[in-house]
Design a protein that fits this description.
This protein has a single domain (2-164), classed as Beta Barrel (FomD barrel-like fold). It has three helices and eleven strands. The chain has helices at 115-124, 129-147, 156-164; strands spanning 2-8, 12-24, 28-33, 37-41, 46-50, 53-59, 64-71, 74-83, 87-89, 92-104, 111-113. This is DUF402 domain-containing protein.
């Protein structure tokens, strides 16, 4: 098991959950999260039960995370956080969420959300201008990967999961 922790800038606990480590490379960590897992949401002071299975990628050198909801062996939706590169220390994985999200719901187009939250928090938490630029550049890189169907948007993650765990 691996314990994931999302932080708000600079290091404020946001939410945390657990999953199964599937793959670790110098570039990313791939995790399988089963339905029924608990997500402790510090910001909202509550715990949620997540009723979907997901493949989640945490990039160690790039500014985003990617979560793919899986149902009946297919990717049904995506939720991507713009973030500082993830950090892995033993079985503890953490990242600083920079508010901007890129999401694709079932049968929907990609949309950037929480731009207002990004602007509010950049003032509230004093984001340096370099950090704001980094977040916007990371969003551009992520959108390019999606448009080019490049990893992890090439479907390769499902093959890894299917090899070990039936979907």
């Amino acid at each position: 098991m691996i314990h994931m922790k999302s932080l708000k800038y600079p290091d404020i606990p946001h939410y945390e959950w657990k999953g199964r480590l599937l793959k670790r490379t110098p570039e990313y960590v791939m995790v399988l999260c089963e339905s029924g897992r608990e997500m402790k949401h510090h910001t909202k002071n509550t715990t949620f039960t997540i009723d979907v299975r997901s493949i989640e990628y945490f990039f160690l050198k790039e500014g985003f995370t990617v979560a793919m909801e899986i149902e009946e062996g297919k990717i049904r939706s995506y939720y991507c956080n713009i973030a500082m590169p993830s950090m892995l220390d033993g079985n503890q994985l953490s990242f600083v969420d920079l508010d901007l999200d890129l999401v694709k719901g079932r049968n929907e187009d990609w949309v950037v959300v929480d731009e207002d939250e990004f602007e509010i928090n950049s003032v509230k938490y004093g984001y340096p201008s370099e950090l704001k630029e980094y977040a916007l550049k990371s969003l551009d890189v992520l959108q390019k990967k999606i448009n080019e169907n490049s990893f992890p948007f090439d479907g390769s993650g499902l093959g890894i999961v299917k090899a070990y765990y039936p979907l």
